[in-house]
Structure formats: C-alpha cells, structure tokens
Amino acid sequence: MTLPTRTECIGKIVRIAGSMISASGMHGVAMGEVLRVGKAGLLGEVIRIDGDTVDAQVFEDTQGMFLGEPVVPTGTPLSVELGPGLLGGTFDGIQRPLSSLQKQSGDFISRGLTAPALDRSSRWLFTPTAQNGQEVTGGDILGTVPEKHFVHRILVPPKVKGVVREIAPKGEYGVDDVIAVLDGGVELRMLQVWPIKEPRPILKKLPVDRPFLTGQRVLDCLFPIALGGTAIVPGGFGTGKTVVEQTLAKYCNADIIVYIGCGERGNEMADVLDEFPHLKDPKTGGPLMDRTILVVNTSNMPVAARDASVYTGVAIAEYYRDQGYDVALMADSTSRWAEALREIASRLEEMPGEEGYPTYLAARIAAFYERSGRVECLETVREGEPPRCGSLTIVGAVSPAGGDYSEPVTQTSLRVAGALWALDATLAYRRHYPAVNWNRSYTLYLKELEEWFSTHAPAGWTERRRALVELLQRDAELQEVVQLVGPDALQDAQRLVLETARLVREVFLQQNAFSDADAYSSLPKTSGLLEAVLAFYQAAREALEKGMVLSDILRLPLREDIARLRDVSREKFEEARAEVMKRLEHQFSNLVTQRSE
Amino acid sequence: MTNPSIQSSDLLEREYWDVQYISGPLVFLRTGSRFPTGAILELQTADGVVRHGQVLEVSQHHAVVQVLEGTQGLDVKTTTVSLQKEAARLGVSRGILGRRFNGVGAPIDGMPAPVPDAEVDIMGAAINPVSRDKPSDFIETGISAIDGMNTLVRGQKLPIFAGAGLPANEVAALIVQQAGTKNDTEEFVVVFGAMGLTEREAAFFLKSFDSGGRGNRVVAFINKANDPAIERLFAPRCALTAAEYLAFELGYHVLVILTDMTNYCDALRQISSAREEIPGRRGYPGYMYTDLSTIYERAGRIRGKKGSVTQVPILTMPDDDMTHPIPDLTGYITEGQIVLSRGLHRQGVFPPVDILPCLSRLMNNGIGEGRTRADHRQLANQLYASYAHGRDIRRLMSIVGEEALGELDRKYLAFARAFEQQMIHQGESRRTIEETLDLGWRLLSLIPKEELTRINKDLIDRYYCEIMEDGVRSPFLKEQSL
Ligand SMILES: Nc1ncnc2c1ncn2[C@@H]1O[C@H](COP(=O)(O)OP(=O)(O)OP(=O)(O)O)[C@@H](O)[C@H]1O
Ligand SMILES: [Mg+2]
Which pLDDT band, with edges at 50, 70 and 90, does B456 fall under? Predict the structure, then answer.
C-alpha cells in the first residue's frame, strides 16, 4: 500500500495494550483512517474517536513501543490496490505481497515493512477499447490487458465520470502510468485504490440461476448453492473445513478464486502454494494458481490484520466480479475474524454481547455475506447492449468452540447464509469425508436452480435426487428403531434400506479429496454413480418381492463393484458403469432363476 | 527479529520508586512512559528481594507488569524498578545442548550460563508462509497407533490429549526414545519445555532422555509445580526459541516436547483475571487461541534449511472433556491430535490410544510408495472404517444384546477387539512400519473380503490373506513365495 502522510497533525501514543493503541492530539482524524504508529511506522486503523484522542488497532506487533512515540494520520481509509498483477499473488492481511516481505526480512516476518501490492516495474500490454471523446462513467471499460489466462478489463473507477480526452494507444504500460485523461484533467491509471470496508458499487443484484458446482457429490447433488450464493461450513477441529475450502478452490466452476486464510495454519497456506501451481485449471488449461489469489493472515500473525484480511479479500473479489467474472471467495475461518473483533472490543472495554463478542458482530457478519451475489456490473447502460454480469460466491468456514453450533458466530452466520454444510465430528472420526451431515445440512437455492438442473444435468437428475433424499430419510428413521431393538428385528425390506443407505454413504456421499480419480466428480459421474446405487436398490427390492432372501442378495459381489466405480477415471467411467449395470441385471436374474430351480 | 532497541544505556541503570499497586501476580507502576511494552524489569525491595517482571500494558496512568517469580514480599514503598532488557531474550548457542534451565532460561544444573552466540527475543516472529516447506518426512515412532494410523512427520505439531492419570508422559518418552533412531540420529535433538511439572514427572523425563546416551542432545527448560506460575508463560517460548535456533541456524531435527500445556493455560488465565479482563469460556481469556497459536505455530520446515521443528505438546483434558477450551483450541491450531482413552487404559492397553478422535493432518504427505508403503493410506482408511463400525456394533450390542446381532456383526465385534488388543496394544515394544502394516492386514482378514471397500482390488490381491487352518498367514510369506 502506498500511503501519503498528513504531517499537519502528529499525535502521540498515550496507551498501548496488545494490538490496540490510543493516541492523543489527533484532531480531525476520521473513523477507519489509516495511521502510521510509532517510530517503526506500523500500520494502524482508527476504530474509535473521543475528542482528539483516538483508539486504533495496529496491524503489527506493538512490542517494544514507548508512550509518546508519534502517530501520523494518512488521510486515507484502509484500502487495496486493484489492477493487473493480483492473480497468482499471495498477500498478507493488509495486502503486502508475502514474497516482497520475504525479500526484505527473510524467512521470518519482521515489523514495519512496507511493500506495494502491485509491482510497479511490471509492464502490461494495454489495448484501448474506449474512444477519445467517449463519455464514460464508473465501471466502463477503458481497455483490456492480458493477465495470466484472463482478459483483465481496465475499468473507470466507480464515482468517476467524464469525457475521454485522450486514451493511451496500444502498448506496454506500468500500473502507475496514465492510460486515459478525462476532461478536467482527471488522470486514470490501470491501478486503482479502493477502501476495503466499502462494497464496490453495482448496477443491481440479479436473481441467481446457475449452480456453483463443486465436484463434490454430496454438495452438488444434495445441497447445491448458486453462483453468487453463500454457504457456511461449520465444524469442530479436524472435521474437514479446510479440505472442503481447498477442494472447492481447486474444482469449483468459478473463474477466479480468492482464498482467505484468516487466523489459520501457516502450513496450510504453504500447501496451497505448493500444490496449486502444479494443478490445471480446467477452464483455461493454465496452472490453477493463475486463477487464485491468496490472502494470508496465519493465526500467529497480528490479530488486528485478521479483520483487514477478510475485507482485503472481498474487495479484490469484487474487483474481478466487476470485470464480469464469476468469482468465489473462500474464507477460512470466519470465526477467527470474529475472535479478532472480540479481542479488539475487549481492549476497548466495550460492553460485550453474547460470549464476549461485540454487539455489532451480527451486523459485520451480515454485511460481509451481503457482498456476495450475482450482479449487473456498474457501467453506462446502453440500449440494445447486453449488460455485463458477474457473480461473487462466498463460502465461509466457521469454527465453533467445542463443535457446538449454538455459539454466536455459527448462529449469526446461519441467519444470513444461503446454505449450511454442517460438518460432523462423528463422521470424521470414522473417516467419512467430506464429513457433511446430510440430515443437518440444507440449502435454500433448490428452487432457483431447479430449472438449470433439469435442462443441464444428466437426464433423470431431479428424480434420482428425490429418491436419494427419501432413502436417506427412511434410513434415519430405521436407524432409530435399530438403536432400540437391534437389526435382527427388522424385516428384509427394511434391512435392505439400511444396507443400501450404507452403500450410498460409502460410495456416493464419501469422496476422498486425495484420490486422483475421485477428488472431482463431474455431474455425469455423480449422476451415474447414484443411478448404479439406485438400480441395485430397485433390483433388490424386486427380488425380495419375488421371494428372495436378503442375505443371498447381499452375497452378490455387486456392492463391491459399485464401490469401485468411484475410483474409475473420468474417461473410463461411462464404460465401467455400463458394465456394472449389465452385471447387476445379469446377477439378479441369475439369482431369480437359481431360486426357482 | 529484533525490536528497535533503546539507545540510552543509562536507562538501564536508572531506578524508579514507581510502584503504586500490587495485585496477585501484577504490579502497577504509576506511569507507563518509562518502559516499552514487553520490556523486562527488575524490581528490588529495600531488604533485598529481587524480582523480574514484564511490561504488559502502558498508559499515562499506569504500566501493568506481570511479575515472574510472584509478588510475595514486594511493597509499594521501597521497591525500586529498573529496566533489565527491552525484551525477554534468550541467549542461544551450540552450548545449550545437554543443559538444564529454568522456565526463563537461567541454568539450574549448577554450571554457568553458556556463552551465547545470539540473544533472541523469545516471542519469536511468524514464519513467512511462503518460506515454509512442506513437512513430509516420515518419523518412525515404533508405535502402531501413530505410525500406522496417525503418522507423524518432521515439522508437524501433534499434541497428546490425555486425562489425569493417563500415561501421556510414558507415551511421549517412548516417542522420544524411538523416534529418529532409524537414521541420521546425529542431527536429532530434543528440546524439553516443562510447565508446572511435579518433581517426580520431571525426574522421569530427564531419566528417560538420558537413557541411550542421548543426554547431551537434550535441552530442558523446566518449570516445576512449585516454581512461579508466571514463568510457565515463558518456558515454552524459551524452549521454542532454542528449538528454532538449533533447527534453522544449526540444522538439527528438533523434537520439542511441551508439557503440560494445561498448566500453561491456567497461568494465562491467572494473569487475565488479575487484569480483570472479560473472561471467555470457562474463565480462560478470549485471546487464548491467538496466544496458543504463537506457541504451536512455531513448528515446521523452512525452504532451503536443513533442520526442522517438530512439536509434541502434552495436555491434560480437565474431566476428560475434549470440548474443554484447552484441548479444543489446541486442536484448532495443531495438525492433529493423539487422544488417550481411560477405557483402554483400564483394560491394560498400552499405549491406550483411542484412535477414532485421533488425527494426523500431515499423514498423507509422509506415507505411501517410497516413504512407507503403497498400501498404507488405503489400509489405514479401511482399518479406521472397520474399527469405527465394530465400535458401533459394540455399542449396539450393549443395548440390544449379542443375540440380536447377525453373523457379520459378530465378525466386526471380533475385529474391533483384536484391533485394540493387538494393534493398539504393544507395550514397550517397538514395531517397524512394515510390521504395523502387516499386522493391519492380518487383522482385516477377520472380516469378509467383500467388506473391504476402501482398498483397491490390486492392493487386496497383493496383501490380503485368508485365515488359514494353522492361523494367520503373513502377507510377507505370500510375497516371498512368489
Ligand atoms: N474429503 C476428504 N478426503 C480425505 N481426507 C479428508 C477430507 N476432508 C478432511 N480430510 C482429512 O481430515 C483432516 C482434517 O481436515 P481439515 O484440516 O480440513 O479440518 P478443519 O475442519 O479445517 O480443522 P480445523 O478447524 O482445525 O482447521 C485432513 O487433514 C484430512 O486428513
Ligand atoms: Mg482448517
């Protein structure tokens, strides 16, 4: 971040408590304004004003600071730099590139470092699309730049309007170079700066209509969300939140991914950095890292920067959405952000709400998820031209204390999220992954997506889904009976339900994120697997009606065959499935003939 | 890592009569303007009592100082305050190997302090995530429940969750004794950080480290039960500062044992309540997650550096409750956990590891072809699934009786029992990873082959064996006969 300084008013530190400082003599400073704190010039943000004394959260460690050290306001709110060069980048919570920090301070991050988010020396091939004399307003496209495998659209910043007096000719420019001048001398560059806490404006929100496909059977089939929708993933430690977030980052059908590691592990970020450059983006064919932007504030990095990291991430995501892309934002974990708010609030000695969280927690969480949506992007509306649309999907992990969902962060998130993907420790204990509890999870997007699935998904999708939901429902009821009287008390038809549900769990609902063949399940594969399981169920039911006994049916090697379909690669899947279906028919008819003989 | 330091050396000599208020482990000074936050102060009374404290918070009205050795004997009248160091630092050098220190890094083995090569701030600094290297070297601990089911790798942080009276120390000692004995023992050192340990426990650990002649490759920072509680906040940080130095400056593979983190957290709670902060769950401060992460995250590997820091913290779950904030927050930070079970302990199983709630998140990086064996991942998954199913059936049986179970259910029961008695239970013996995996296959032969849906067909063909008339045939025999 490049920050001017407003030297006319320099304050003094009068209190230091953890990541919070107070400074006096700060007349005229605004809420949210960025400060340079102490001799080391650490970045801070004003969070409370009382006369000319302000309280600020500091984004770096305050150890070693003295009272009386200077505090300098910068006159700007906490902002991000937007422009070509973000894709593939890894930034800390206040958008400093981690690789620049590494160059400056080595393997350990030291304090008081500054580094611009966007490299000033990179050159980008700018192709103008706006004309001299054209009237432009915020969001209009001035030109394009190839960035990795994407067309980066250079937009007129929101709130700017005017007539283009001069647009730069096609050529290579740095982000700092002027590429357009409007009348009145307003200079526009590829780089624009945006305050992170302010949602970037749009023309309007649109109803969602396409699914956010994840390649995860349990999610795509049972609990799909829409592009532009929101989901939360709560679960105790080790239940698989991070694996879900990372798997979605790898396989979801969004164009661009912003991944926020907020208050979590350093090794997990290293994992992404290690893996993503070697994985292929199915859409562009380029490395997956090229469509990904990481915002990283690990748990041991300064706590105030967690708050910033969430907003930094969402502002970057909105910027690509505004260019007309489907963007997905993964936030792991929103609970750590909430805890950071709690920590700051308690240092401010604010009146605590539930479990010590500040009373504005719900409002902050709601405002965050509200930045999602499918939108008509900001631009000049022109008769007859199709609008530019983009979307921002948000999937937030929640880490409830003790795995108990009744805590405030889970509850407030639930009120605003469109889907709940509830992770369950008992499933995780038995290595049932993804440990999505199918009885507890839900989605509110089914209606909106119905049409898309009935026209785009493999034939029979909706019916199969319904059959699956019914089967799982029956299973849940019967499990209760079994817990009372034991499995032997059930009739064969009922036990068949249990056995089929077990097959569903093992073959369909479980999906190993680390298996090459099964980590991603396309809609045809998801549909095909379900079809095989349901075909078994159907055939077995008919056989029972014809007087066969269940134990004979279960002895058929079919369940094993179906289970192994999971690990068949995408190319060979259809063939293998047809084979299994044939065998299934054959074996059941054999069974019936043997029986009648 | 160093802070902008204080220039004036005269600051060090100046003394102030500044103490205004003393409460519990805290001393409040009249003004906060003299010392920086984090500074280490010396407090001295007229009758010669000397204490050390760290500045936690400063404002115009006061400075809050936590006193390491306790505030007993300090007064507001005669106590002088002076600056000792501008931050808590530990002197490090190769000479710390084989030495014993107290929780704040002063020698307790009767020898003079080693000559330091560097003075390092014990708070440490965050490893830049882009500098981190992926931990992927398998550590063979010789314990099946760990090696086979929840593999430990170099650079991982894998805590042991125990209940009061469960043999966590014995398990940790076993890990220390057996880990790394396979290869490159030379580079393998142990850093031991003890918080609130009883004399007996401390003696147990030190003795077990010494056995096998490893004594000179152990560094210990020991805060005993009767030592000042506040020093517990420093002991793990001293230990990790030493560990980082040994690993990233000198290239050692360092195994850090921290015990008992529950005592650490209790000391944290004590300070928090003395500061009259709003308590979080069960009275522990709201920032405990963040605080613990500044300990646990100090593990890992760094690109281009030879050494590694592996952490095995031990904690006691109050009431055996895993949802208690201490194990809960720990589990949210560490890369898995090894959970001990009272039930298995009662049955005489050692190590009494309840594998279901256990997890090693980095296991996948460290196992498989070329590391352990090709069948490892799938075999472990299958063992997990089958054992979990067996446990379900055992629970069901306790409700509905054994008669209500079918034939297959009984097989699962038998499998679960055998798994506990043979796989988990191994006493003090050491198993190689091959032995562990072979045993897994043998146990799986107790259930029908069709049930093994977690394992590929070719692996089953290669490793599975039927129960023979004369007992169980080892898959090894099968391979040898080929
Ligand atoms: N889909 C999956 N396939 C295979 N293994 C999985 C899957 N999901 C989770 N796991 C296993 O579970 C472990 C824990 O998952 P993860 O790290 O995502 O948990 P988490 O919920 O993020 O925990 P925490 O809250 O502590 O961060 C992983 O390391 C992995 O071994
Ligand atoms: Mg996680």
Answer: confident
CATH class held by domain A457-596:
mainly alpha
Q: Is B328 in contact with A402 (Cβ distance < 8 A)?
A: yes
For A566, which DSSP code? T
DSSP H or E stretch at residue A247:
helix A241-251
- The rounded mean pLDDT for chain A is 92
* Per-residue DSSP letter, A156: P
A594 by DSSP, 3-state: which?
A: helix
- Using the Cβ of B125 and the Cβ atoms of chain A, whether some distance falls under 8 Å is answered with yes
ipTM > 0.90 for the complex: yes
List chain A residues with CB under 8 Å of B38. 63-64
- Give me the pLDDT at residue A6, please: 53
Q: Nearest-CA neighbor of B264 among B242, B293, B231?
A: B231
Contact status of B21 with chain A (Cβ, < 8 Å): no
Q: How confident is the model at residue A483 (pLDDT cuts 50, 70, 90)?
A: confident
Predicted pLDDT at B480: 36
With tokens 């499935």, the residue in question is: A577
Terminal-to-terminal C-alpha distance of chain A: 83
Among A94, A265, A292, A551, pick the best mutation site for testing chain B contact (most B Cβ within 10 A): A265
Pick the closest to residue A73 from A142, A120, A127, A25 (CA basis): A25
In the reported structure, the alpha carbon of residue A238 is separated from the centroid of ligand 2 by a whole-number distance in angstroms of 7
The model's pLDDT over A35-71, given as tens digits with 9 standing for 90+, comes to 999 999 999 999 999 999 999 999 998 988 999 999 9
| B298-325 per-residue burial string, b: 16 or more CB within 10 A, e: under 16 | bbbbbeeeebbbbbbbbbbbbebebbbb
Question: What burial class does residue A419 get, using C-beta atoms within 10 Å of its C-beta: 0-12 exposed, 13-18 middle, 19+ buried?
Answer: buried
Residue bearing the CA closest to ligand 1, atom 28: B361
User: What does R_g of chain A's alpha carbons equal in angstroms?
Assistant: 28
Tokens 């032997």 belong to residue:
A488
pLDDT of residue B185: 58
- The CATH code of the domain at A86-91+203-291+318-445 is 3.40.50.300
Residue nearest atom 24 in ligand 1 by C-alpha distance = A237
The C-alpha atoms of residue B181 and residue B24 are separated, in whole angstroms, by 46
CA separation for the pair B117, B304 (Å, rounded) = 22
Q: Return residues with CB closer than 5 A to ligand 2 (ion).
A: A 241-242
Report residue A244: phi and psi, to 5°.
Answer: -60, -50
Residues 224-243 of B with CB under 8 A from A: none
Tell whether B300 lies on the interface with A, counting CB pairs under 8 A: yes
Query: 2.10.10.70, 2.40.50.1070, 2.40.30.20, 3.20.20.70: which CATH number matches B8-86?
Result: 2.40.30.20
If you measure CA to CA, which chain A residue comes closest to B321?
A402
The CATH number for A124-190, chosen from 2.40.50.100, 2.40.50.180, 1.25.40.10, 2.60.120.200, is 2.40.50.100
Looking at domain A7-77, its CATH class is mainly beta
Token look-up 């009372």 returns: A484
Mind listing the pLDDT tens digit for each residue in B305-334? Answer: 999 999 999 999 999 999 999 999 999 999
In this prediction, residues B401-422 reach a mean pLDDT of 90
How much is the pLDDT for A395?
98
Taking CA–CA distances from B279, the nearest residue in chain A reads A356
Pairs of residues, one from chain A and one from chain B, whose beta carbons lie less than 8 Å apart:
227
Pick the CATH number of B376-481 from 1.10.1140, 3.40.630, 2.30.30, 3.40.50: 1.10.1140
Considering the four listed CATH numbers 3.40.50.12240, 3.90.1570.10, 3.90.650.10, 3.40.50.10490, the one that applies to the domain covering B90-366 is 3.40.50.12240
Could you tell me if B132 lies within 8 Å of chain A, comparing CB atoms?
yes
SS3 A179: strand
Is the predicted pLDDT of residue B4 greater than 90, yes or no?
A: no
